[in-house]
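Render this sequence as a predicted structure.
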Amino acid sequence: MKPKIIRTESEYEAALQRVAALMDAETEPGSPKGEELDLLSLLVERYEDEHYPMDLPDPVAAIRFRMEQQGLKPKDLIPYLGSASKVSEVLSGRRGLSVAMIRNLVQGLGIPAEVLIGRPQAELAREPESEALQVNGQVSAMQAGSP
């Protein structure tokens, strides 16, 4: 298959089959087949981003998921959220996350700030560019631990 922009579902399916074949063959990075795999992967990703967009999960669902992954109980969130009552309020949806809570959860549990802010990707894409850049700058600063 010659790599090209994927425009149809049938081209997408063919590209997926070729990617699977290249992966099954344990293609070496940097080889001609490795380069083909890299290029096809980028083309497939672009097609999927356009045709199968995924919204970010709900912040509380993300926290609960991380708790499950790490075997945490609500009391284990006190260092990140401040108190047992705040943990209860956040997990029940009665309280939103503060900037300090978001920073703590990003640094302590590795939950992406974009998820904790709770703004779907599609919503960010509709914003004027200057506002989207400002939000993205704030997210980057939170991930870096800046005030």
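Summary. Residues 9-51 form one domain. The first helix runs from residue 9 to 24.
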